[in-house]
Design brief:
CATH class of the largest domain: Alpha Beta
Mean pLDDT: 94
Distance between the termini: 8 Å
Low-confidence stretches: 1-25
Largest sheet: 8 strands, mixed
CATH topology of the largest domain: TIM Barrel
Number of domains: 2
Structural class: alpha/beta
Bound molecules: acetamide
Helix content: 25-40%
Number of helices: 17
Protein backbone atom coordinates (compact mmCIF):
# COMPACT_ATOMS: atom_id res chain seq x y z
CA UNK A 1 0.00 0.00 0.00
CA UNK A 2 2.77 2.42 0.93
CA UNK A 3 4.61 1.53 -2.24
CA UNK A 4 1.45 2.15 -4.27
CA UNK A 5 1.03 5.53 -2.64
CA UNK A 6 4.61 6.47 -3.38
CA UNK A 7 4.38 5.30 -6.97
CA UNK A 8 1.11 7.14 -7.45
CA UNK A 9 2.67 10.25 -5.99
CA UNK A 10 5.72 9.96 -8.21
CA UNK A 11 3.69 9.45 -11.33
CA UNK A 12 1.41 12.32 -10.47
CA UNK A 13 3.94 14.86 -9.37
CA UNK A 14 7.43 13.84 -10.39
CA UNK A 15 8.53 14.65 -6.85
CA UNK A 16 10.80 12.68 -4.55
CA UNK A 17 9.26 9.63 -2.95
CA UNK A 18 9.73 11.02 0.54
CA UNK A 19 7.77 14.16 -0.19
CA UNK A 20 5.09 12.44 -2.24
CA UNK A 21 4.27 10.04 0.56
CA UNK A 22 3.74 12.62 3.30
CA UNK A 23 0.58 11.44 5.01
CA UNK A 24 -1.19 14.79 5.43
CA UNK A 25 -1.01 15.45 1.72
CA UNK A 26 -3.55 13.92 -0.64
CA UNK A 27 -1.90 12.49 -3.73
CA UNK A 28 -2.50 14.54 -6.84
CA UNK A 29 -4.71 13.22 -9.54
CA UNK A 30 -2.82 12.27 -12.67
CA UNK A 31 -3.97 13.76 -15.97
CA UNK A 32 -5.61 10.44 -16.83
CA UNK A 33 -7.60 10.58 -13.59
CA UNK A 34 -9.24 14.02 -13.87
CA UNK A 35 -12.90 13.65 -12.91
CA UNK A 36 -15.14 14.39 -14.75
CA UNK A 37 -13.04 13.17 -17.66
CA UNK A 38 -12.05 16.11 -19.87
CA UNK A 39 -12.25 16.26 -23.65
CA UNK A 40 -8.49 15.78 -23.82
CA UNK A 41 -5.61 15.76 -21.37
CA UNK A 42 -1.91 15.07 -21.74
CA UNK A 43 0.79 14.85 -19.09
CA UNK A 44 4.19 16.38 -19.89
CA UNK A 45 7.58 16.26 -18.19
CA UNK A 46 8.17 18.49 -15.22
CA UNK A 47 6.07 20.32 -12.71
CA UNK A 48 5.29 23.79 -11.46
CA UNK A 49 5.94 24.54 -7.80
CA UNK A 50 4.01 27.25 -5.98
CA UNK A 51 6.48 29.40 -4.09
CA UNK A 52 6.79 32.64 -2.14
CA UNK A 53 7.07 34.57 -5.40
CA UNK A 54 4.11 32.95 -7.16
CA UNK A 55 1.31 35.33 -8.06
CA UNK A 56 -2.17 34.78 -9.43
CA UNK A 57 -2.75 37.10 -12.36
CA UNK A 58 -6.24 37.97 -13.48
CA UNK A 59 -7.95 40.66 -15.49
CA UNK A 60 -10.86 42.37 -13.67
CA UNK A 61 -13.45 39.99 -15.18
CA UNK A 62 -11.55 37.03 -13.71
CA UNK A 63 -10.96 38.60 -10.30
CA UNK A 64 -13.68 36.59 -8.56
CA UNK A 65 -12.25 33.30 -9.78
CA UNK A 66 -8.78 34.46 -8.72
CA UNK A 67 -10.04 35.24 -5.20
CA UNK A 68 -11.64 31.81 -5.03
CA UNK A 69 -8.44 30.11 -6.20
CA UNK A 70 -6.35 32.08 -3.73
CA UNK A 71 -8.79 31.06 -1.00
CA UNK A 72 -8.14 27.42 -1.82
CA UNK A 73 -4.39 27.60 -2.43
CA UNK A 74 -3.21 29.92 0.36
CA UNK A 75 -4.15 27.62 3.25
CA UNK A 76 -3.11 24.53 1.25
CA UNK A 77 0.36 25.83 0.39
CA UNK A 78 1.14 28.41 3.07
CA UNK A 79 2.22 30.83 0.34
CA UNK A 80 0.93 34.42 0.02
CA UNK A 81 -0.22 34.17 -3.64
CA UNK A 82 -1.05 37.84 -4.19
CA UNK A 83 -3.50 38.61 -6.98
CA UNK A 84 -2.16 41.03 -9.59
CA UNK A 85 -3.06 42.34 -13.00
CA UNK A 86 -1.61 40.38 -15.93
CA UNK A 87 1.87 41.23 -17.14
CA UNK A 88 3.44 42.20 -13.80
CA UNK A 89 6.10 39.48 -14.10
CA UNK A 90 7.08 36.65 -11.81
CA UNK A 91 5.98 33.05 -11.70
CA UNK A 92 2.27 33.06 -12.22
CA UNK A 93 -0.93 31.17 -12.22
CA UNK A 94 -2.61 33.15 -14.97
CA UNK A 95 -6.37 33.28 -15.39
CA UNK A 96 -6.98 34.60 -18.87
CA UNK A 97 -10.27 35.49 -20.49
CA UNK A 98 -9.62 35.22 -24.20
CA UNK A 99 -11.01 33.72 -27.35
CA UNK A 100 -14.62 33.11 -28.21
CA UNK A 101 -17.20 33.11 -25.42
CA UNK A 102 -18.95 29.84 -26.21
CA UNK A 103 -21.55 30.48 -23.51
CA UNK A 104 -20.49 27.43 -21.51
CA UNK A 105 -17.66 26.38 -19.20
CA UNK A 106 -15.08 25.52 -21.88
CA UNK A 107 -11.46 26.11 -20.85
CA UNK A 108 -7.86 25.23 -21.62
CA UNK A 109 -5.28 24.51 -18.94
CA UNK A 110 -1.53 24.49 -19.45
CA UNK A 111 1.01 23.69 -16.74
CA UNK A 112 4.74 23.97 -17.36
CA UNK A 113 7.75 24.38 -15.09
CA UNK A 114 7.30 28.16 -15.41
CA UNK A 115 3.67 28.50 -14.53
CA UNK A 116 0.03 27.68 -15.00
CA UNK A 117 -2.30 29.27 -17.53
CA UNK A 118 -6.05 28.73 -17.64
CA UNK A 119 -7.77 30.32 -20.63
CA UNK A 120 -11.51 30.58 -21.22
CA UNK A 121 -13.99 32.76 -23.02
CA UNK A 122 -15.76 33.57 -19.77
CA UNK A 123 -15.23 33.40 -16.01
CA UNK A 124 -17.35 30.23 -15.64
CA UNK A 125 -14.84 28.41 -17.84
CA UNK A 126 -11.94 29.64 -15.73
CA UNK A 127 -13.76 28.34 -12.67
CA UNK A 128 -14.14 24.90 -14.28
CA UNK A 129 -10.43 24.98 -15.13
CA UNK A 130 -9.63 25.87 -11.53
CA UNK A 131 -11.46 22.73 -10.38
CA UNK A 132 -9.29 20.68 -12.72
CA UNK A 133 -6.19 22.45 -11.40
CA UNK A 134 -7.21 21.60 -7.83
CA UNK A 135 -7.28 17.91 -8.71
CA UNK A 136 -3.80 18.11 -10.26
CA UNK A 137 -2.15 19.78 -7.26
CA UNK A 138 -0.23 17.87 -4.64
CA UNK A 139 1.12 20.06 -1.87
CA UNK A 140 2.80 22.97 -3.67
CA UNK A 141 3.38 21.01 -6.86
CA UNK A 142 1.32 20.75 -10.03
CA UNK A 143 2.43 18.23 -12.63
CA UNK A 144 3.04 19.62 -16.12
CA UNK A 145 0.58 18.95 -18.90
CA UNK A 146 -2.30 20.28 -20.93
CA UNK A 147 -6.07 19.97 -20.80
CA UNK A 148 -8.65 21.08 -23.33
CA UNK A 149 -12.18 20.76 -22.06
CA UNK A 150 -15.85 21.61 -22.57
CA UNK A 151 -19.09 20.30 -21.08
CA UNK A 152 -21.27 17.81 -22.95
CA UNK A 153 -24.51 19.17 -21.45
CA UNK A 154 -25.35 22.70 -20.35
CA UNK A 155 -27.33 21.53 -17.31
CA UNK A 156 -25.55 19.54 -14.62
CA UNK A 157 -27.58 19.65 -11.46
CA UNK A 158 -27.95 18.38 -7.95
CA UNK A 159 -31.10 18.65 -5.84
CA UNK A 160 -31.18 18.90 -2.07
CA UNK A 161 -34.47 18.29 -0.25
CA UNK A 162 -34.40 20.73 2.67
CA UNK A 163 -38.11 20.11 3.36
CA UNK A 164 -38.15 16.55 4.76
CA UNK A 165 -35.22 17.54 6.92
CA UNK A 166 -33.92 21.06 7.24
CA UNK A 167 -30.30 21.86 6.51
CA UNK A 168 -28.63 25.07 7.67
CA UNK A 169 -27.03 27.65 5.38
CA UNK A 170 -23.64 26.28 6.40
CA UNK A 171 -24.64 22.73 5.52
CA UNK A 172 -25.95 23.82 2.12
CA UNK A 173 -22.77 25.79 1.46
CA UNK A 174 -20.68 22.77 2.36
CA UNK A 175 -22.60 20.73 -0.22
CA UNK A 176 -22.23 23.53 -2.79
CA UNK A 177 -18.46 23.38 -2.33
CA UNK A 178 -18.54 19.64 -2.91
CA UNK A 179 -20.73 19.97 -6.00
CA UNK A 180 -18.52 22.62 -7.54
CA UNK A 181 -15.50 20.32 -7.47
CA UNK A 182 -17.25 18.09 -10.00
CA UNK A 183 -18.38 20.96 -12.26
CA UNK A 184 -22.04 20.79 -11.21
CA UNK A 185 -23.56 24.14 -12.21
CA UNK A 186 -27.15 23.95 -10.88
CA UNK A 187 -28.46 23.54 -7.33
CA UNK A 188 -32.16 22.68 -7.19
CA UNK A 189 -33.45 23.38 -3.67
CA UNK A 190 -36.65 21.51 -2.79
CA UNK A 191 -37.95 24.19 -0.43
CA UNK A 192 -41.47 23.05 0.42
CA UNK A 193 -43.21 19.73 0.91
CA UNK A 194 -45.79 18.13 3.18
CA UNK A 195 -43.38 18.07 6.11
CA UNK A 196 -41.98 21.59 5.97
CA UNK A 197 -41.94 25.02 4.32
CA UNK A 198 -38.38 26.35 4.39
CA UNK A 199 -38.36 29.87 2.91
CA UNK A 200 -39.73 33.00 4.55
CA UNK A 201 -42.51 34.56 2.47
CA UNK A 202 -43.25 38.04 3.82
CA UNK A 203 -46.84 38.16 2.58
CA UNK A 204 -47.68 34.76 4.13
CA UNK A 205 -45.43 34.58 7.20
CA UNK A 206 -46.97 31.50 8.83
CA UNK A 207 -45.70 29.32 5.97
CA UNK A 208 -42.23 29.46 7.49
CA UNK A 209 -42.91 30.17 11.15
CA UNK A 210 -45.56 27.44 11.49
CA UNK A 211 -45.26 25.35 8.32
CA UNK A 212 -41.49 25.21 8.78
CA UNK A 213 -41.57 24.32 12.45
CA UNK A 214 -41.08 20.58 12.16
CA UNK A 215 -39.64 17.83 9.92
CA UNK A 216 -39.86 14.09 9.29
CA UNK A 217 -40.08 12.08 12.52
CA UNK A 218 -40.87 15.27 14.44
CA UNK A 219 -37.26 16.37 14.10
CA UNK A 220 -36.51 20.07 14.48
CA UNK A 221 -37.67 22.18 11.55
CA UNK A 222 -36.29 25.47 10.35
CA UNK A 223 -36.46 27.88 7.49
CA UNK A 224 -34.29 30.35 5.61
CA UNK A 225 -34.94 34.02 6.11
CA UNK A 226 -34.92 35.85 2.81
CA UNK A 227 -31.45 37.20 3.67
CA UNK A 228 -30.23 33.65 4.31
CA UNK A 229 -31.70 32.43 1.04
CA UNK A 230 -29.97 35.29 -0.77
CA UNK A 231 -26.74 34.28 0.97
CA UNK A 232 -27.08 30.71 -0.34
CA UNK A 233 -27.79 32.02 -3.85
CA UNK A 234 -24.77 34.33 -3.68
CA UNK A 235 -22.51 31.59 -2.33
CA UNK A 236 -23.64 29.29 -5.13
CA UNK A 237 -23.06 32.06 -7.69
CA UNK A 238 -19.51 32.50 -6.41
CA UNK A 239 -19.05 28.82 -7.39
CA UNK A 240 -20.78 29.40 -10.77
CA UNK A 241 -23.79 27.42 -9.57
CA UNK A 242 -27.30 28.67 -10.34
CA UNK A 243 -30.01 28.01 -7.74
CA UNK A 244 -33.40 26.75 -8.88
CA UNK A 245 -35.88 26.99 -5.98
CA UNK A 246 -38.76 24.53 -5.92
CA UNK A 247 -42.14 25.00 -4.31
CA UNK A 248 -43.81 21.67 -4.97
CA UNK A 249 -47.52 21.89 -5.93
CA UNK A 250 -50.44 21.14 -6.16
CA UNK A 251 -49.55 18.04 -4.09
CA UNK A 252 -46.83 17.91 -1.46
CA UNK A 253 -48.43 21.00 0.11
CA UNK A 254 -49.52 19.93 3.59
CA UNK A 255 -47.16 22.40 5.31
CA UNK A 256 -48.82 25.30 3.46
CA UNK A 257 -52.34 23.93 3.99
CA UNK A 258 -51.60 23.51 7.72
CA UNK A 259 -50.37 27.10 7.96
CA UNK A 260 -53.44 28.78 6.41
CA UNK A 261 -56.89 27.25 6.88
CA UNK A 262 -58.31 29.42 4.10
CA UNK A 263 -56.17 27.64 1.49
CA UNK A 264 -58.10 24.41 2.09
CA UNK A 265 -61.25 23.67 0.06
CA UNK A 266 -63.14 23.01 3.32
CA UNK A 267 -61.54 25.91 5.18
CA UNK A 268 -60.07 23.56 7.79
CA UNK A 269 -56.31 23.41 8.32
CA UNK A 270 -54.88 19.89 8.60
CA UNK A 271 -52.31 19.18 11.30
CA UNK A 272 -48.62 19.44 10.59
CA UNK A 273 -47.26 16.21 9.14
CA UNK A 274 -44.07 14.39 10.12
CA UNK A 275 -44.54 11.05 8.34
CA UNK A 276 -43.20 10.01 4.94
CA UNK A 277 -46.31 9.15 2.92
CA UNK A 278 -46.84 11.02 -0.36
CA UNK A 279 -49.84 12.00 -2.45
CA UNK A 280 -52.36 12.94 0.25
CA UNK A 281 -52.38 16.74 0.00
CA UNK A 282 -53.56 19.16 -2.69
CA UNK A 283 -53.97 22.88 -3.02
CA UNK A 284 -57.60 23.84 -3.71
CA UNK A 285 -57.67 24.15 -7.50
CA UNK A 286 -61.04 25.94 -7.73
CA UNK A 287 -60.43 28.57 -5.06
CA UNK A 288 -59.31 31.93 -6.39
CA UNK A 289 -57.33 32.55 -3.20
CA UNK A 290 -55.03 29.69 -4.25
CA UNK A 291 -53.79 31.75 -7.20
CA UNK A 292 -53.46 34.95 -5.16
CA UNK A 293 -51.36 32.89 -2.73
CA UNK A 294 -49.21 31.47 -5.52
CA UNK A 295 -48.81 34.86 -7.18
CA UNK A 296 -47.49 36.23 -3.87
CA UNK A 297 -45.18 33.28 -3.22
CA UNK A 298 -43.86 33.10 -6.78
CA UNK A 299 -43.48 36.87 -6.90
CA UNK A 300 -41.32 36.94 -3.77
CA UNK A 301 -39.32 33.91 -4.88
CA UNK A 302 -38.75 35.39 -8.35
CA UNK A 303 -37.50 38.62 -6.79
CA UNK A 304 -35.06 36.68 -4.59
CA UNK A 305 -33.78 34.41 -7.37
CA UNK A 306 -31.49 35.74 -10.12
CA UNK A 307 -31.54 32.48 -12.08
CA UNK A 308 -34.06 32.10 -14.92
CA UNK A 309 -35.97 29.07 -13.58
CA UNK A 310 -38.46 28.44 -10.80
CA UNK A 311 -39.42 24.80 -10.15
CA UNK A 312 -43.12 24.20 -9.46
CA UNK A 313 -42.98 20.48 -8.67
CA UNK A 314 -46.10 18.88 -10.08
CA UNK A 315 -45.22 15.29 -9.08
CA UNK A 316 -47.39 12.76 -7.26
CA UNK A 317 -50.54 14.92 -7.29
CA UNK A 318 -52.62 11.87 -6.36
CA UNK A 319 -55.19 13.98 -4.49
CA UNK A 320 -55.81 16.27 -7.45
CA UNK A 321 -58.05 15.02 -10.27
CA UNK A 322 -56.37 14.75 -13.69
CA UNK A 323 -58.54 17.55 -15.08
CA UNK A 324 -57.81 19.80 -12.10
CA UNK A 325 -54.12 19.03 -12.44
CA UNK A 326 -54.13 20.35 -16.01
CA UNK A 327 -56.07 23.46 -15.02
CA UNK A 328 -53.74 24.11 -12.14
CA UNK A 329 -50.40 23.50 -13.85
CA UNK A 330 -51.36 25.61 -16.85
CA UNK A 331 -52.43 28.51 -14.68
CA UNK A 332 -49.34 28.38 -12.47
CA UNK A 333 -47.01 28.26 -15.47
CA UNK A 334 -48.59 31.55 -16.49
CA UNK A 335 -47.96 33.05 -13.04
CA UNK A 336 -44.29 32.08 -13.21
CA UNK A 337 -44.01 33.61 -16.69
CA UNK A 338 -45.75 36.78 -15.49
CA UNK A 339 -42.97 37.17 -12.92
CA UNK A 340 -40.35 36.92 -15.65
CA UNK A 341 -39.20 33.37 -14.94
CA UNK A 342 -39.26 30.06 -16.78
CA UNK A 343 -40.79 26.89 -15.41
CA UNK A 344 -39.06 23.71 -14.43
CA UNK A 345 -41.32 20.93 -13.16
CA UNK A 346 -41.24 17.21 -12.65
CA UNK A 347 -42.05 15.45 -15.92
CA UNK A 348 -45.70 14.95 -14.92
CA UNK A 349 -46.19 18.52 -16.17
CA UNK A 350 -46.40 17.12 -19.71
CA UNK A 351 -49.95 15.97 -18.85
CA UNK A 352 -50.79 19.70 -18.93
CA UNK A 353 -49.64 22.04 -21.70
CA UNK A 354 -45.99 22.92 -21.13
CA UNK A 355 -45.07 26.46 -22.15
CA UNK A 356 -42.43 26.53 -24.91
CA UNK A 357 -39.81 27.37 -22.29
CA UNK A 358 -40.90 24.80 -19.67
CA UNK A 359 -38.33 22.15 -18.76
CA UNK A 360 -39.58 18.73 -17.65
CA UNK A 361 -37.46 16.90 -15.10
CA UNK A 362 -37.72 13.18 -15.78
CA UNK A 363 -37.85 11.01 -12.65
CA UNK A 364 -39.49 7.85 -14.02
CA UNK A 365 -37.68 4.51 -13.68
CA UNK A 366 -37.98 3.39 -17.30
CA UNK A 367 -36.58 4.80 -20.54
CA UNK A 368 -39.99 4.24 -22.13
CA UNK A 369 -42.36 7.12 -21.51
CA UNK A 370 -44.11 8.00 -24.79
CA UNK A 371 -45.89 11.02 -23.30
CA UNK A 372 -42.64 12.66 -22.19
CA UNK A 373 -40.90 11.63 -25.42
CA UNK A 374 -43.70 13.25 -27.42
CA UNK A 375 -43.43 16.45 -25.39
CA UNK A 376 -39.66 16.43 -25.96
CA UNK A 377 -40.23 15.97 -29.70
CA UNK A 378 -42.60 18.92 -29.48
CA UNK A 379 -39.90 21.15 -27.98
CA UNK A 380 -40.13 20.61 -24.22
CA UNK A 381 -36.63 20.53 -22.74
CA UNK A 382 -35.81 17.55 -20.54
CA UNK A 383 -33.50 17.19 -17.56
CA UNK A 384 -32.84 13.54 -16.75
CA UNK A 385 -33.03 12.24 -13.18
CA UNK A 386 -34.25 8.65 -13.59
CA UNK A 387 -35.04 7.59 -10.03
CA UNK A 388 -33.47 4.14 -10.44
CA UNK A 389 -30.18 5.59 -11.71
CA UNK A 390 -29.74 9.18 -10.51
CA UNK A 391 -31.53 9.36 -7.14
CA UNK A 392 -28.83 9.73 -4.53
CA UNK A 393 -31.19 8.75 -1.71
CA UNK A 394 -31.56 5.19 -2.98
CA UNK A 395 -29.59 2.63 -0.97
CA UNK A 396 -26.45 1.19 -2.53
CA UNK A 397 -27.30 -2.33 -1.36
CA UNK A 398 -29.79 -3.94 1.04
CA UNK A 399 -27.66 -3.16 4.09
CA UNK A 400 -27.03 0.52 3.41
CA UNK A 401 -28.02 2.13 6.74
CA UNK A 402 -29.53 5.27 5.17
CA UNK A 403 -31.84 5.93 2.26
CA UNK A 404 -34.77 4.25 0.54
CA UNK A 405 -35.18 1.49 -2.02
CA UNK A 406 -38.52 2.08 -3.76
CA UNK A 407 -36.91 2.88 -7.13
CA UNK A 408 -33.86 0.62 -6.99
CA UNK A 409 -30.69 -0.28 -5.21
CA UNK A 410 -28.06 1.86 -6.95
CA UNK A 411 -24.43 0.78 -6.84
CA UNK A 412 -21.79 3.05 -8.37
CA UNK A 413 -21.76 1.07 -11.61
CA UNK A 414 -25.54 1.58 -11.93
CA UNK A 415 -25.30 5.32 -11.35
CA UNK A 416 -22.59 5.52 -14.01
CA UNK A 417 -23.94 2.90 -16.41
CA UNK A 418 -26.25 4.84 -18.70
CA UNK A 419 -26.03 7.46 -21.41
CA UNK A 420 -28.19 10.56 -20.97
CA UNK A 421 -27.83 11.28 -24.68
CA UNK A 422 -29.82 8.26 -25.79
CA UNK A 423 -31.68 7.21 -22.66
CA UNK A 424 -35.24 8.44 -23.22
CA UNK A 425 -36.72 6.40 -26.07
CA UNK A 426 -38.07 8.62 -28.85
CA UNK A 427 -36.79 11.91 -27.43
CA UNK A 428 -34.66 13.96 -29.83
CA UNK A 429 -31.12 14.45 -28.47
CA UNK A 430 -31.58 18.22 -28.82
CA UNK A 431 -34.28 18.13 -26.12
CA UNK A 432 -31.92 16.78 -23.47
CA UNK A 433 -30.61 19.69 -21.41
CA UNK A 434 -28.61 17.49 -19.08
CA UNK A 435 -28.75 15.51 -15.87
CA UNK A 436 -29.57 16.08 -12.23
CA UNK A 437 -28.88 13.99 -9.13
CA UNK A 438 -31.69 14.54 -6.60
CA UNK A 439 -31.16 13.84 -2.91
CA UNK A 440 -34.36 13.35 -0.89
CA UNK A 441 -33.84 13.52 2.83
CA UNK A 442 -36.56 11.52 4.61
CA UNK A 443 -33.77 9.44 6.19
CA UNK A 444 -30.97 12.03 6.18
CA UNK A 445 -30.21 14.50 8.97
CA UNK A 446 -26.57 15.56 8.85
CA UNK A 447 -23.90 16.59 6.37
CA UNK A 448 -22.25 13.23 6.96
CA UNK A 449 -25.54 11.58 5.88
CA UNK A 450 -25.73 13.74 2.74
CA UNK A 451 -22.16 12.92 1.84
CA UNK A 452 -22.51 9.19 2.41
CA UNK A 453 -25.32 9.04 -0.16
CA UNK A 454 -23.77 11.54 -2.61
CA UNK A 455 -20.25 10.13 -2.63
CA UNK A 456 -19.31 8.40 -4.79
CA UNK A 457 -22.46 8.53 -6.95
CA UNK A 458 -22.64 12.30 -7.36
CA UNK A 459 -19.30 12.36 -9.25
CA UNK A 460 -20.68 9.57 -11.48
CA UNK A 461 -23.71 11.63 -12.46
CA UNK A 462 -21.53 14.73 -12.78
CA UNK A 463 -19.32 12.87 -15.24
CA UNK A 464 -22.34 11.74 -17.30
CA UNK A 465 -23.29 15.41 -17.56
CA UNK A 466 -19.87 16.84 -18.34
CA UNK A 467 -17.72 14.30 -20.17
CA UNK A 468 -17.83 13.41 -23.88
CA UNK A 469 -19.72 10.19 -24.53
CA UNK A 470 -16.51 8.81 -26.06
CA UNK A 471 -14.83 8.85 -22.64
CA UNK A 472 -17.51 6.61 -21.11
CA UNK A 473 -15.67 3.55 -19.81
CA UNK A 474 -16.43 1.89 -16.48
CA UNK A 475 -13.01 0.26 -16.19
CA UNK A 476 -11.35 3.69 -16.38
CA UNK A 477 -14.02 5.57 -14.45
CA UNK A 478 -13.56 3.35 -11.41
CA UNK A 479 -9.86 4.26 -11.38
CA UNK A 480 -10.67 7.97 -11.74
CA UNK A 481 -13.08 7.64 -8.84
CA UNK A 482 -10.53 5.75 -6.75
CA UNK A 483 -8.09 8.61 -7.24
CA UNK A 484 -10.54 11.05 -5.60
CA UNK A 485 -10.62 9.32 -2.23
CA UNK A 486 -7.49 10.93 -0.74
CA UNK A 487 -8.99 14.34 -1.44
CA UNK A 488 -12.30 13.33 0.15
CA UNK A 489 -10.48 12.09 3.25
CA UNK A 490 -8.47 15.31 3.44
CA UNK A 491 -11.71 17.32 3.22
CA UNK A 492 -13.51 15.16 5.76
CA UNK A 493 -16.10 14.03 3.21
CA UNK A 494 -17.94 10.93 4.44
CA UNK A 495 -18.25 8.46 1.55
CA UNK A 496 -19.52 4.96 0.89
CA UNK A 497 -16.44 2.80 0.24
CA UNK A 498 -18.05 0.81 -2.55
CA UNK A 499 -16.45 -2.61 -3.08
CA UNK A 500 -16.64 -1.91 -6.83
CA UNK A 501 -13.88 0.71 -6.57
CA UNK A 502 -10.14 0.02 -5.96
CA UNK A 503 -9.86 2.89 -3.48
CA UNK A 504 -6.49 4.52 -2.94
C1 LIG B 1 -40.38 12.48 -7.04
O1 LIG B 1 -39.50 11.65 -6.74
N1 LIG B 1 -41.58 12.39 -6.51
C2 LIG B 1 -40.11 13.55 -7.98
Amino acid sequence: MLLRLIVAGLVATGMSAVTAAEPARPAATAYADILPAPVSARAERGAFTIDRGTTITAAPAARGVAEYLAGVLRPATGKPLPITRPGRGGDAIALVIAGRDTGDESYRLRVSGRGVTITAGRAAGLFAGVQTLRQLRSGRTIAAGQVSDAPRFAYRGAMLDVARHFFTVGQVERYIDQLSQYKINTLHLHLADDQGWRIAINSWPRLATYGGSTAVDGDPGGYYTQAQYRAIVAYAASRYITVIPEIDMPGHTNAALASYAELNCDGVAPPLYTGTEVGFSSLCVHKELTYKFLDDVIGELAALTPGPYLHIGGDEAHSTSPADYVTFMNRVQGIVAAHGKKVQAWHNVVAATPLPTTVAQYWDTTPDNPQVAAAAANGTGVVLSPANLAYLDMKYNPSTPLGQDWAALIEVSDAYGWDPGNYLVGAPPSAIRGVEAPLWTETLRTSADIEYMAFPRLPAIAELGWSPAATHDWSKFRLRLAAQAPSWRAQGINFYPSPQIPWR
